[in-house]
Amino acid sequence: MIRDQGITSKIWRFAIWALAILFVLNLLAVIAAVVVNSFATRWLGTWLPAGWTTRWYFSAWKEFQLSSVVLVTFEIVFTVVIVSGILGVTTAYALARRDFPGKRLVVLLFLLPLLIPPLTYGIPLATVLYQLGLGGTFWGVVLINIVPSLPFVVLVMIPFIEQIDPRIEAAARVFGAGTTSLFLRILLPLLLPGMLAALLLVLVRTIAMFELTFLIAGPTTQTLVVSLYYAVFASGVRAGQSIDAMAVVYMVTTLFWLVLALQFVNPTQIVARAKHQSSH
């Protein structure tokens, strides 16, 4: 009986590893195909392209006006990051330091945008923004992206704030520290790793946020991911290599910020902190 269980366990481990390896290989193959095709002069029915060129990147940059798209993308993303950071850190501090009736309900309401599909609240929210005259505008895109970004900052920052002993703040106030001085000299150095982690992850999330941005963006407020969608599905004949070149630009941009974010935060550590706090 024990031997049969051991064999079954080995089979399960082998199957799980085989599926994981197959998934990774399939993902790498898709990415490799896109990257290779973006440098190909012609690639039909062969293992490798007939030749190599970088002209598709120059063509995509000009055809899809990537300079303005990238600029708009980072203007929107950094605005979302700044606003979400200010509001999110303040809200997280209040929730971490104050106990009041209905606190759990308030936290749940904050986390709802992370728990439900974006289109569930995105469509009615976009309708309201259009009625307010913000449809297709810069601030319309910013506001709709703040809705899931703000709860994300709150979720990440609460465990970091709860790790700071309140007695440190009390001691600083006893010695005459005001609110501004307390934040800049005491709290900010302690919270900086968590803030960097939260804001960098918000940045990556906003760059990749398609559904909400697509609902509200106009011709001059499209982010890179929305422009990529239009490049693929809009009417007209476009070279596949140019579209793949645009996709590579998007992948590299997102990957750069994701790798940078992971230098400051380990997602498993955030989950472990959250579990530790919930167990108390």
From TrEMBL:
It is a multi-pass membrane protein. PROSITE patterns: ABC_TM1. Keywords: Cell inner membrane, Cell membrane, Membrane, Plasmid, Transmembrane, Transmembrane helix, Transport. Gene3D superfamilies: MetI-like. The chain crosses the membrane at residues 12-36, 69-95, 107-132, 138-161, 182-208, 214-233, 245-265. It is found in: Cell inner membrane; Cell membrane. One of its GO terms (biological process) is transmembrane transport. Residues 70-261 form the ABC transmembrane type-1 domain. It comes from the Bacteria. Pfam families: BPD_transp_1. GO terms for cellular component: plasma membrane. Belongs to the binding-protein-dependent transport system permease family. This is ABC transporter permease. It comes from Rhizobium grahamii CCGE 502.
